[in-house]
Amino acid sequence: VMATAGQMKDDQIMRLARATFLDRQLDPPSDQKKRRNSVAEDFPAVHAGMKYLLSTEMVHFNRDNQLYMATPLGRAVCASGLSCEAGIVLWEELKRLRNQTGLCLEGELHLIYLATPWEASVSESLIDWNVYAAVVEGDLNKQQQASLDVIGI
């Protein structure tokens, strides 16, 4: 859903699922098994994935149009290349920082935050501490220093 036009109907999801390698492995063309025309019954893994995307609010189901639509969060996670799980963790962290602290990153500090790979923040072995030390020990104004304190640096 997220990698396509951003919205799909059930029949489009079914058509997409039937065009996958997984479908050919699970239901070879020679197998005359009757299809039920239901994503939940014919493709339980796809159905479970859609339920997960709905529960994480990466996809919204519009009942009026019967469309699954990618949310702004879903589009952002898809465009970022992060896994769904990593995208959710990052989103929750940003919401927490904004709601609990009123943190608003500006200027060069904002660019550093945006340019730092998220994966580096969860793996200390990927962080070049000398670079971080140079930034932190540099000429930071009070607002920038307060931002670093809130982030936990």
UniProtKB/TrEMBL annotation:
Residues 85-153 form the POLQ-like helical domain. It comes from the Eukaryota. This is POLQ-like helical domain-containing protein. It comes from Perkinsus olseni.
